[in-house]
Each structure stands twice: as C-alpha cells, then as structure tokens.
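User: I'm writing a short report section on ligand binding and want a predicted complex to refer to. Could you take this sequence and pyridoxal-5'-phosphate and write out the structure as tokens? A short remark afterwards would be nice.
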Amino acid sequence: MGPGPSDINPRVLQAMATPVVGHLDPEFVQIMDDIKVMTQQTFRTSNELTFTVSAPGSAGMETCLVNLLEPADEAVICIHGVFGGRMADIAERCGAKVWRVEAPWGEPIDPSQVKDALEQCSPKLVAIVHAETSTGVLQPLDEISSMTHDAGALLVVDAVTSYCGTELNVDDWGIDAIYSGTQKCLSAPPGLSPVSFSQRAVEALEQRSTKVQSWFLDLSLVKNYWAGAKRAYHHTAPVSAMFALREAYRIVLEEGLEARFLRHRDNHKLLRDGLEQRGFEFLVDEPYRLPMLNAVKLPQGVDDASTRSRLLNEFNIEVGGGLGNFAGKIWRIGLMGESCNPDHIDKLFHALDSILN
Ligand SMILES: Cc1ncc(COP(=O)(O)O)c(C=O)c1O
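Assistant: Sure. The structure tokens for the complex follow:
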C-alpha cells in the first residue's frame, strides 16, 4: 500500500516465468504488436507512435522531453511536487529555456498562471503531471490543454500514477505526448514505460534540426524496432517483463477501464472514511484528491518512522512516507491496481487500531 510498485496478479507473475525467446523472434514481435494495441486502448488513443520504452517511468519522461526539445526552445513546466521538478531539470539539460509555473505542494496548478506564462514566451511545449505521487493531487487538464494549443504548443503529460486507475483520455484531451509506468495501477513489474505521441508531436520530431542527444531514447531510431513490416534491432528488449506486461494489460481490459476507475474511487472512499474516523486528515482538497494515492496528515502524537516500521515488520503492510517538506508529516497510502481492494484496507485499519490503541 505504498506509492508503487503495487501487488502483481499471479497470472502476471506466471507470464514472466515463460521461457525466454529472442527479441526479434516472430512470436515476440506478435507480443509487441499486442502490447501496442492494448497501450492504445488504455491510453484511449489512435496514435500510431505508441509503444513501451524498455526502462522505467523516468525514461518515459526523458523520452518525451529529449525528443521534443532542442537547444534554445522554450518550455513551460508546471511544478506542484517532485516530478514536475524533475521535468524542469530534464528540459534544462536539453538546453531549453524553462518557464516554471508552480503551485504549493498539495494544490493543483492554477490554469491562469499557465496562461500568464504562455503569454510571456513562445513555447514549444507545456509539461504537467496528471497525478502528482509526491502530494496526492489529481490535476485537471482540460483548460490547460486548450490554452496550450491556442498558444501553438504541445501538451506533455506525466500519467505514471493515474494510468489505468482514473479517467485518462489522450485523444479527447488533446495530449500530444504522454508517458506512464507499469508498476502503479497497471500492476505489472516495474521497469517499463508506455508512451504515446500525437501526429502534431510526430511532426515536431520530424522538423528537428539537431540530433536527439540520447541515442537510446531517440524515437527516430527506436521506432523502427516497434513499427513496420520488418523490425530492425535497436536494443535487446526485456522479454520477460514484456510477457508480464501483456498479461497485465489483458487483466485491465477484462475488468474494463470504467469498472477499474470505479473500483479505485470506491476503495478510496472506504479508506478515506476509516482514516478520518481514526484522526487522519487529507492533505488535498476533495475535488483534487487522487483515488490511488492518499496523502494524509498524521494525527497528533503519531510518530511517522516507528509507526511505519511497525506496520511493515509486524503486519507486513507498506505505506509511503512524505517527501521533501512533508517528510515525517504525511503518509502516502497507495490503492493501486491489484492492491486496491477492501481486504487490504481492512488489514490496514486492524493494524492501525492495534498499534495506535
Ligand atoms: C508521477 C511520477 N512520475 C515519474 C515517476 C518516475 O517513475 P520511475 O520511478 O518508474 O522511473 C514516478 C515514480 O514514482 C511518478 O510517480
């Protein structure tokens, strides 16, 4: 029940134990195709350039930014927690001029501040985190998406924690580049990053005048491994993790996205009610709360480190601590994918009652 990785279904673990085939074996190429289609379905996109980066969410973040930004480009980066800060760092390493739009931790980004930033520069892109795992904030995207497009810029979204756990519509919301991770609400092993790029983003890639500074993440190279009748060797894919990913996607689609979102919302409410009865207070205002990552302030007198270590050692339950200014003050309780169920919540309440009483 931490901020990820979440529990993994035995079907997925079993798939990961399948004997390995070569990364260009026709059977493996078919598996890549299956994964691509299921990635499109779960992102709700028809983007052709949709695939899985063979590295964790941070590599998905880097893939989006190093491919879309060139030295001297301008970028508006929204920061309302740890991960927005990382995007700004990467954008600066690409040589871009970064315009930071910040919100206090625990609050969403205010669209009017994005508008102000867009008026001051000529941005190539706006980047924003949909679900800030460090604070538990769900960021509304619709208004920011339209103002980004009005300014002629591309919208880049971090959906590492929101993907497969709450509403996310890549095409309808006008998202041009998106990345996620496999270890949160998708409940697959960590270490892979599903990504997708709109036609507008692909055009921006084609118009680059400089080489992408990362060889491994350069889309013009890696796309030949994921698309076309004849696949070209780019790198040795993590075959076992991909077997697991395909099975995890099948489970998501068998449940159905809407049913999965509802399950995350329902269990969040169950957790919220029980935590509030026990004196925990939510950090984030109701409309902006993430269902899959519950950031709560500790009740007076509850010690963070010793209580979390008792939860882990005596009850086998992991919850996440706070980051940055929130270290020692909040907990981040995950309800992600396979871990999002009433049984986990009951066990947590039982453990808390026995420790806190
Ligand atoms: C919102 C967000 N973005 C990016 C990342 C980085 O992902 P990874 O740790 O898989 O590299 C995380 C990881 O927790 C995250 O929560």
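A remark for your report: Residues 62 and 90 are 7 Å apart (CA to CA). The chain has two domains: 10-253, 257-356.
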